[in-house]
Amino acid sequence: RKTHYSHQELIPAILYGSEIKNFPLEIDRKQFEKVYKETGESSLISLQIEGENSKKFDVLIHDVEKDPLTKKILHVDFYCPSTKKEVKAEIPLVFEGETPVVKELGGILIREIQTVIVKGLAQKLPREIKVNISKLKNFQDRILIKDLEIPEGITILKSPEEIVALIGLPEKEEEIKPVEEKPVEEKPIEEKVTETETTEKTKS
User: Fold this and answer.
1) Among 28, 58, 81, where does a domain finish?
2) Mean pLDDT in residue range 115-137
3) How many CB atoms are closer than 10 A to CB 162?
4) Which domain holds residue 33?
5) 31: domain CATH number?
6) pLDDT value at position 41?
């Protein structure tokens, strides 16, 4: 059983959900890697099943197993969610914009969290949530969970007061004092001559 991607190198996969039976698949590696890069694991994609009973499912890429050394994809789980029941998904945060506190005052942008777990209908799940850091106008400003813009019907499963990003104070540069080189003491010519004569006598 293959999806409409089927050709060349294939990846074993499985399709499952609360309202369907488990369905083993094989998918084209190049096509899947392209889709996975574009959508991630929080966007619904259309999965076309080829065969006698050709069907199309709206699914989430629920789990991707990779080789720990080569990072090559070994297996994929597709989850077909109910259109009426809420699901949970991990959504990445994308930090964008500029703040003069970093650009002009040397502040350091501190990202307290990189992803959030959300709950909502699968068809409303965002691929990513953008964080506009231009709102950080001084060292006292904070961006909190409650400040994030999310689609209607989506709930972030974190405290509204949890910090997402802030600006840290610039690191103090330690003054590096140059090492003073001690001048090499030049011996008087007479001493050099005496040392040379002594050495020659010793050899003889």
Assistant:
1) 81
2) 93
3) 14
4) 10-81
5) 2.40.240.10
6) 85
